[in-house]
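Notes on consecutive records. When two proteins share a document, each keeps its own sequence and its own token line. Never mix them. Below: protein one.
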Amino acid sequence: MSGLKKELGLLQGMGLLATSLLGTGIFVVPATAATIAGQASLWNWLILIVLVLPIAFTFARLGRRYPHAGGAPHLIGLAFGAGAERFTAFLFLAVLPVGLPAALSMAAGFWHALLPLGGGGLWAVEVLTLLAIYLLGMRGPRSSGNLQLLIALAILALTLVVWFKGDLDWRQGLPAFPQAPSWPPMASALAVMFWCYVGLEAFAHMGEEFKRPERDYPIALLGGVLLAGVIYWANSVAVLTFGHYGSDADNNTAVPAMLADLFGEKARIVAALLGYLSCFASINIYLQGFARLIWSMARDGKLPARLGHLSRRGAPLNALGCVLGICLASISVISWFELPLATLISYANGNFVIVYLLSMAAGWVLLPRIGKWLAGLSTLLCLAVLLALGSESGYALLLAALYGIWSLLRRRSKARQSVALIQRSTD
């Protein structure tokens, strides 16, 4: 079975990660953070980058040392065995029915701002989005990387235009460091802002497709983290300057409202289109990453061999089709029953943090010297975030309990089969 095509370069890698981290967050999170912590939220972006960098460095070192399409589950399996790899893959795939449909709904919502779409129309947009991801996947990772690099550059250009037209100054983004009374709301805002950096684990699946993973993968990862952080910070400065935050409605329309203030009402169309593309980019890298996880497990004999087939362009289309099929079924059920998407996507948060936690613990086992200590620090940071989640980690903990019960029953079944074979051989 041949391997994935190595055609990603440094710029495509940075584009893939930056757009994955920006996603829908760039249009909502700066205003939400400003609502919670005010001017102090500007310091939070700097604090968040400092907190995320050890995790990013650990992923970078792991990806450079062990480039593999299996991503985080493969790394965790190297450190803790096949059972841990299966459990992590299970957590990953369990995000598909809850997190991805909510993200697709957010993407379709931007079209709702342009056209009068009902429930059926929004569902059709979601289906067409899945079709576009499949068609993009047919062309291989380089096409995804090029498209997402363009989207990242468009978001950066939009941010620069807002700064130039609004006559903003970078010194506005560095107010005096907040006093102690501001620290509790800063902590609350930081918990929300952390989810802007959920996406590193999806990027880990792409390491095997870099032309020079030992050089370009870690630089692309760290460059994408810093680029996304700067764009988030710059948008937060603009949101606070123009005052477009406060209520949920204000937070959700902050960027279109800023553009309307600066360039007129037609600028809202630009914001809606760019918002959709940003969502599309984030969803694309996740679904392509899931496909590579399934493909790598099939390649290693852990899933049916059909899922390990590659197209002529070296793309795992069978695995991608399987992932998109699960998403199609999920969005159809959610649309039919009108399930609360905000609640569903919050369920996925615990899954991601546990994957991060296990990945950092794997780094402690697998990496030498300074990499080991960075991984240890990152493990403690992820553990703190998991504890801070509280009830939102319930979905992940329930999945862990169900997986534990299934594993126990599986071991007992194998033990009975072994005993039965022994008894037959002695008769």
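Protein two starts on the next line and is unrelated to protein one.
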Amino acid sequence: MQTRTLRDLTVSAEGLGCMGMSEFYGTGDQAEAERTIRRALDLGVTFLDTADMYGPFTNEILVGHAIAGRRDEVVLATKFGNQRNPDGSRLGVNGKPDYVHEACDASLQRLGVDVIDLYYQHRVDPSVPIEDTWGALRELVQAGKIRHAGISEAAPETIRRANAVQPVTAVQTEYSLWTRDPEEDGVFATCAELGIGFVAYSPIGRGFLSGEIRSIDDLDENDFRRHNPRFQGENFRKNLELVDRVREIADDKGVTPTQLALAWVMARSDRPGYPTIVPIPGTKRVRYLEENVAAAGIELTGEDLRRLDEAAPVGGTAGDRYPDMSSVHR
């Protein structure tokens, strides 16, 4: 696996999102999840992404168990700010400085590590000046508890203000063939200008771009995608048409739609006006991990990229990314 540099942090060119191993995407299997993480390390996928809210809390524990004895192979990213109770109920977004310190200490304990490589503010708290939150992150860097700081789903001006307090190493936002917002909303331009890396979550469109989801009934009853606007009603039907166009190109290329979607995201990296981009596809099974890793070796031609732009243009997806968009892009 090749590497890429997010500002001054070197990571594998493709990471692994661990969220679905514990929650949101149906029933998990901890033993298989730990095997998947260890197999990722074997294949050179060393950039692991988790958060305290996943589970809640249990995903960090799972990742900590899986990397025990292999800490020096891992670039470990986790997040704070989406505050939840142990029973899963939500307390809201919290960016207060005291909470930032408390959350970091709790994550370090659950992960079983002495330092977090990349610590993200998961969502921006509109009630707390971003300078206050990032002052706390700067203190964590100075204390040696985190090495780098990042931010998720933030607007360009917020990114600039945070970066003025403590260098922003990475911005994490949804990006894929069916979510191309950062190309148009100033996030890519801001990251490129400031030298900030970009981490693309849900690069396979929450699994939709795999082409394997043909009906809402293909999802488990407790799968959060059942409540996602893009998976509902007429939106679902229209988005299937986009997926089928992508599948046709994948078939012509002799790769899976998933691999094509990932190769496209990786091909966007370091274009003029674009930042370095690292996708973190999530999976909880070894066989899908291996499929995803193979995408790193796919070369896309100019004709491939032209066809994909036609198949999945900016704004070509039907429906919002979340049922409530009020907590993103602040």
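For the record: Residues 233-253 form the longest helix (21 residues).
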